[in-house]
């Protein structure tokens, strides 16, 4: 299979736009090739796109950057959870939002469009575009591939003939983290092992939206309340959580499990937290759930690593909501795309070529 390498940098210069031949001046992982659609691109630089139909794969800031309450350029297609967050947090009017159900194809400007669960953060979707008489496009947004995606009808229907716009966040062989369930089991074992001291506070790092599965499952299995801030609770309320999770949430910080921003799970910030709770807690155990926390070039990465400084303990756990390198290869092998357009981490040269080549089956 031949793969088209399209390069991405955070600052994508006009000269590079011309090299790619984009009349809109936008890269092809945002301006869909041959289609009048923009995906995860808003604000500055979109003026020449003449776009009426916009798409947002999920509510992470690097994808909705530039989107504000003043948006009037068209309508935005997204999932219900994403639409609620866009309205709640960015104040985009509801009349500018079009909610799309997963696995329910619809026509947008004559193009068949299907959203598929991306196994990323809540509300995240992959998008399958099927224009009449042209090759389909699969835009993964951010996703964590799993074998169950091979049962998705919209993906099966375009195997062997689609352009794949791929989340290549971890497209390097050293990123080989274990399945999420294994990491969850490790975290549960760690919490149980550290809970002998009743004056221990447990911190679980998370994003505005993302990584909820870890602290919610720990709370459910251990039947413990988990503290969330008022703003985090407002976000979680948009998710429609089942009762077994909903009843475990509290804004009372006397709970021993706390969901906090990921940056607060560090020795420096945990020391400040311990000082704040002086007299209530003597030890803090924090969990950093991110694929960047570790990597392994051979075999599986360990499920987690423990660091301790005095009464502060940090577990770095490879709980990722992006695909590992091996999972990226599995996805490419399943979809057999005619072209691959990486959306992350291309340098415009040999590094990018090597990255895409690493996804091809051995010859």
Pick out its properties:
six-stranded mixed β-sheet, alpha/beta, Rossmann fold, 20% strand, seven-stranded mixed β-sheet, 26% helix, 363 residues, Metallo-beta-lactamase, Chain A
How is this structure best described in words?
It is found in: Nucleus. Its main location: nucleus. The chain is α/β, with parallel strands linked by helices. It has helices spanning 14-20, 61-64, 80-90, 153-156, 180-194, 212-222, 230-237, 243-246, 267-276, 325-335, 350-357; strands at residues 37-39, 53-55, 75-78, 97-99, 106-108, 111-117, 125-130, 137-139, 163-166, 200-206, 226-227, 249-250, 257-261, 283-289, 305-309, 312-317, 339-342. It has two domains: 14-173 and 322-357, Ribonuclease Z/Hydroxyacylglutathione hydrolase-like (Metallo-beta-lactamase, Chain A), CATH 3.60.15.10; 180-317, Rossmann fold (3-Layer(aba) Sandwich). It has a seven-stranded mixed beta sheet with strand order 12-11-13-10-14-16-15. A six-stranded mixed beta sheet has the order 5-6-7-8-9-17, covered by helices on one side.
Radius of gyration: 22 Å
Number of helices: 11
Strand order of the largest sheet: 12-11-13-10-14-16-15
Low-confidence stretches: 1-21
The average pLDDT score comes to: 89
Beta strand count:
17
CATH superfamily of the largest domain: Ribonuclease Z/Hydroxyacylglutathione hydrolase-like
**Beta strand %:** 15-25%
CATH class of the largest domain: Alpha Beta
Question: What is the domain total for the residues?
Answer: 2
**Overall body shape:** globular
Q: Which secondary-structure class do the elements indicate?
A: alpha/beta
Helix content: 25-40%
Spell the H/E element sequence.
Answer: HEEHEHEEEEEHEHEHEHHEEHEEEHEH
CATH-scheme architecture of the largest domain: 4-Layer Sandwich
The CATH topology of the largest domain, please? Metallo-beta-lactamase, Chain A
Measured between the Cα atoms of the first and last residue, the distance is: 10 Å
């Amino acid at each position: 299979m031949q793969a088209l390498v399209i390069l991405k940098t955070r600052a994508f210069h006009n000269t590079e736009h011309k090299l790619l031949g984009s009349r809109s001046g936008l890269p092809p992982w945002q301006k869909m090739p041959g289609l009048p659609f923009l995906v995860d691109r808003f604000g500055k630089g979109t003026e020449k796109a003449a776009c009426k139909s916009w798409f947002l794969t999920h509510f992470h800031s690097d994808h909705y950057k530039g989107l504000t309450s003043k948006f009037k350029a068209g309508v935005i297609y997204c999932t219900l959870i994403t639409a609620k967050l866009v309205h709640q947090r960015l104040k985009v009017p509801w009349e500018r939002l079009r909610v799309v159900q997963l696995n329910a194809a619809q026509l947008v400007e004559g193009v068949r469009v299907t959203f598929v669960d991306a196994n990323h953060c809540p509300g995240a979707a992959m998008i399958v575009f099927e224009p009449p008489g042209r090759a389909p496009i699969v835009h993964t947004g951010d996703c964590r591939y799993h074998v169950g995606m091979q049962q998705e009808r919209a993906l099966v229907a375009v195997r062997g003939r689609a352009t794949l716009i791929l989340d290549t966040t971890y497209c390097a062989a050293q990123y080989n983290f274990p399945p999420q369930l294994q990491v969850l089991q490790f975290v549960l074992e760690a919490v149980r092992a550290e809970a002998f001291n009743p004056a221990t506070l447990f911190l679980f790092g998370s994003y505005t939206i993302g990584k909820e599965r870890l602290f919610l499952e720990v709370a459910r299995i251990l039947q413990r309340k988990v503290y969330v801030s008022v703003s985090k609770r407002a976000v979680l309320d948009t998710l429609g959580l089942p009762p077994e999770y909903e009843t475990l949430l509290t804004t009372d910080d006397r709970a021993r499990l706390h969901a906090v921003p990921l940056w607060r799970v560090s020795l420096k910030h945990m020391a400040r937290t311990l000082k704040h709770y002086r007299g209530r807690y003597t030890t803090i155990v924090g969990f950093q759930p991110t694929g960047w926390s570790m990597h392994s070039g051979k075999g599986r990465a360990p499920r987690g690593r423990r660091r301790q400084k005095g009464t502060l303990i940090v577990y770095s756990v490879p709980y990722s909501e992006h695909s590992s390198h091996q999972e990226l290869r599995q996805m490419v092998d399943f979809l057999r795309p005619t072209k691959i357009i990486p959306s992350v981490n291309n340098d415009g040269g040999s590094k990018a070529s090597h990255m895409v080549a690493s996804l091809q089956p051995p010859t």
